[in-house]
Amino acid sequence: MYWRIGGVEHYVLNLEEVKGVARPRPRSATFSGTQDSTMGVTRWASSPCRQLLAGATAQGVYLWNHKPFAQLSSLVYETTEFGRIVDLVWAPSGDTLFVALSRGYIYELSVQRRGDRVLEYVFATQHYFARGPGEENGIGGVGLAQRRTFRLPDTNSDVVCAGAAKYAMVATGSHVYRMTWAGALKSSVTVSEVYGRGGDVEVVQMGVLGDTDMEYFVFSDGSVRIIGNVGDSVDMVGDNVQTLDGLDATALDYSATSMMMAVGTTTGTVYLYALEGKQLHRVGRADGNGRVRALRWSADGTAVACVHATGHIVMRTLLGREVNSTRVGDIEFVAWGVGARVFAAGARNAWGLGFARAMSSAGNSVCLFSDDMVLVQARGVDEGAVWRVEHVAASYAGANAPIRVAACSADGRVAVAGTRGMAVSTGHGRWRLQRAARERIVEYTALAWSGSHVAAACVDHARNTARLEFWMGGRALDAPAASIDLDARAVVVSAHGSAVLVLSEHGMLSEYALAAGGAQVELRRAVDVAACGVDAHCVRQVMWAPGACGDSGAAVVVVQGAQLRVVRDGRASTVGRAEHVSISSVNIGSMHSAVWWYDGMQVLAAPVSLDDFMSNDTRALDRGPSVHLPLDFYPLVIAADHGMVIGLDQDSVGTHAPMLRGTLFLPSLLSHMLHTSEPDALMYAASFEHRGFFAHAMEKLLHEALVNDMRLDRTVRMLA
After folding, report:
1. Do β-strands 175-179 and 168-172 pair in parallel, antiparallel, or remain unpaired?
2. Distance between alpha carbon 166 and the CA centroid of its chain, in Å?
């Protein structure tokens, strides 16, 4: 999840010229119109790589760099012969823009890297008068140039919008056209066929749900329609079509990473849907104020940024919890940058907001990382929380920012990786870096601390191989202590004691451990979770279920999209909705451990008995949660030795670090244990008697028993 840090950067859009760029004279002396930028930018589009932003006025296309924010190039059309610019969309390759004009024409623009020069192009009355690169007064970066112009078959109605994914989509008042990125017409269908019923409506937004063959359409009456099995022809009957009525939808976005769809409405409410198979199921709802103008999922699919008509950017979690709201101004568009940075824009102004996100931690610390720094909670919440802020070494961050993956050890040391290489903190403001030769060629995709070692999954671009490396955290990063080649790129790495789990992009889950005094890596066992229906690209967490150690038929707990799933005996079952999961030890009497997960509103727990642990049985998860703990903040860590859930305050805004919060789970867990085993509850409570919060925990337990009139006699005996 993401939390605001730092201030808000404000930019005024300059739509008149690109600084340092000469405006060449057009080859034609006749003009049917002049550039009108009084309305400002009316359409925005973020590139697939999230580094570039394209904006369109009625007669011009502009290109900006995301960070640092700078205008790179522009194309100004000195004619209205083909109509005004209605929409623009990026090709997945990131080197092509389709610009849709109201009178049924499509401009194909190339996004070209031109070394040290980028020029602005001016078009005369005919589209084929596009000029090539100039010779003087260019600026470094990326530029725009026009390739071709296409004309849609139907010119009797104006173009209203465009969408893109694997192919381009253009909608007029009467038809929807599907085009290849080479400009060839794939197929077409009437708007009335897509809508599926009578009525005079227009398509206001459309696209494809990630890599699926499912298209979505938002209509002017606020309804949403999902059409599956889209090919050269579409059968719009039966299970191929799903209609979402009564939403008053205004904006929609889909995350292929989390398989979640967010729909904004006129009332400000955001509805969240999970894609399961070929059907969308509503899994969350978040109320808000003011019409939703735009929304966009983060790259990792864990947060959705929503723009409201009130001028607020609201950050919501995977299942809809609001964690941050910032008012900036009149906004029409929002996009995520390469790292944890959000860009918002209106017609004449733009804003940049910095965020930090949570990293995996081997201890009880809450740890965050932004594009170039880390924040580590140095002491427990009951001891007075203190944030330690460490800026990543400038020599590393300058060339490799933003930070993409990070992990924190039990003693507060942090390992981070950006576009290339890795850096490890000493915990005292200093960083250990890799040699420059390695840093340039190695990309780290996942990190985890295993004891004193950093387990790092990487891709060696020089050898074109994937590896798992173990680095000693307290030593220079000259060479790994041990490494082993992997069959495929790793997407998730997690540590379990001395064992390290690695999930590859092909869906193979492998367990590795250091052997021979830490000089070699051995493969212990492997499970093909892809064969059980698990999509590795959508998995954020993976761990062995309690009791899995040493069992060849071990059960695996995964968080895939918004689902908590258990994989065992060649099949995967769904436990419930979850944003993240953790496992804590109890080891009291007949109770061994507990599996905890957060469902967007409350923390849930399924206690695991010693018998279930010894037999590697997952029936505790199959039965569902026995402990329910509603929270008014976002949980990040289950501090089992403190009897607490620790997280961050959802109301934290401004330039200060987020506020640490905690609440006791001890009363809720004791209440469950009193029902299953009174002696176990007494022993478990006794292990917390030395804690300062113990008396308060007992008061809460008694209050719960009095309110619910359950197990009151047992509670009184325990307190006595």
Report:
1. antiparallel
2. 20
On whether the CB atoms of residues 61 and 109 are closer than 8 A, the answer is yes
Q: Is the dihedral of CA 81, 36, 333, 199 positive or negative?
A: negative
At residue 655, does pLDDT exceed 50?
Answer: no
The string of pLDDT tens digits covering residues 89-143 is 999 998 899 999 999 999 999 887 654 444 444 443 333 333 333 333 333 457 7
Reported as a single tens digit per residue, the pLDDT across 215-228 is: 999 999 999 999 98
Q: What are phi and psi of 563, to 5 degrees?
A: -115, 140
- φ, ψ dihedrals at 587, nearest 5°: 55, 50
The rounded distance, in Å, linking the Cα atoms of 370 and 356 is 4
Evaluate if residue 253 carries a pLDDT over 60: yes
Round to whole Å and give the CA distance between 296 and 331: 13
Amino acid at 284: G
Which long-range contacts link 203-206 to residues 24+ away (Cβ below 8 Å)? 203/160, 203/161, 203/171, 203/176, 204/160, 204/161, 204/250, 205/161, 205/163, 205/251, 205/252, 206/161, 206/163, 206/169, 206/171, 206/176
pLDDT band at 270 (very low <50, low <70, confident <90, very high): very high
Question: Cα(258)–Cα(246) distance, rounded to whole angstroms?
Answer: 25
d(CA 541, CA 16): 48
Which ranges constitute the DSSP H helices of 401-515?
A: 436-441
Residue 69, classified by CB atoms within 10 Å of its CB into exposed (0-12), middle (13-18) or buried (19+), is: middle
The tokens describing 292, both together, are 């939703």
CB proximity list for 125: less than 8 A, separation 6 or greater: 28, 30, 31, 32, 78, 79, 81
Max Cα separation, the chain? 97
Q: Which of 441, 431, 371, 376 is nearest to 404 (CA)?
A: 371
Side-chain-side CA neighbours of 286 within 13 Å: the count stands at 28
Q: Is 525 helix (H, G, I), strand (E, B) or coil?
A: strand
What pLDDT sits at residue 569? 82
Element spanning 97, H or E: strand 96-101
- The count of other CB atoms within 10 Å of the CB of residue 610 is 18
DSSP-assigned letter for residue 589: T
| pLDDT of 57 above 70 | yes
Find the Cα–Cα–Cα–Cα dihedral 395, 398, 404, 408, rounded to 10°: 30
CA distances from residue 311 to 38, 292, 330 in whole angstroms, order as listed? 21, 10, 5
* 3-state class (DSSP) for residue 680: helix
- Residues 6 or more apart in contact with residue 7 via CB below 8 angstroms: 655
CB atoms closer than 10 angstroms to residue 114: 17
User: In this structure, what token pair is assigned to residue 277?
Assistant: 């198979």
Spatial separation of the C-alpha atoms in residues 679 and 24, rounded to whole Å: 86
